[in-house]
UniProtKB/TrEMBL annotation:
Name the record gives this protein: Secreted protein
Record keyword Signal present: yes
UniProt entry keywords in alphabetical sequence: Signal
Species name: Gillisia limnaea (strain DSM 15749 / LMG 21470 / R-8282)
Residues in the signal sequence: 1-24
Amino acid sequence: MKNKFWIFAVLIGILLFFPTTGFAQNTGIDLDEEDSFKLRPVRIGVKIGFPNLIGGNLEYVTPLLGKKLALNADYSMLKSDWLLKSQDMEEDTEDQINYTYLDLGFNYYFFKPGKGLYAGISYSTIKAESTLEYMDSVEFIEEKHNSFNVKLGAKLGGLFYFRPEVGYSFNPLPKKYDVLTIYNDGTQETRTDDWSELEGPADLLFQGLMANIGIGFAF
């Protein structure tokens, strides 16, 4: 528990200090000049990270709480035939890997209406399905995972914006999942794959870590 706390604290520190200085220096934009930008309540962008992988983001800043409360939605859908080139797959293969992520929630901007540092709460759903065909069998994996989440992020920029974000999932992804195997002779078995021995940075993904970087346009 202490390790999780310090990991989350370090991520928050990086979010607060690195993006606001590094982004401004690299782009030559003085973030203090954001006051001259008009509030654009509709934001459409792309996020890359975990657990969303890569997908779209939509945010709408409402008139509530001094225009500091925003509705937020993230959506990702990835399929195996989008990720693999046609020559990498056999023409008659039935292998399929589908991943869907949906996250709905609210963001509250602390200091300025619809811009700068914000905190968020959300509810997310992950669906992962795979069908893997072998010479003597077919394996099926079907997982669904729901969680409440808290986030901390920053919306930097005006018409074009940059958005770093970190968060914590109160229901982290499980390290164990069931695999159903059906053999050609009609018999079947269910085994449990276990990633409990996983160590290193990848293990953070199973401890509730959420992190992504987004870019987009505001209107």
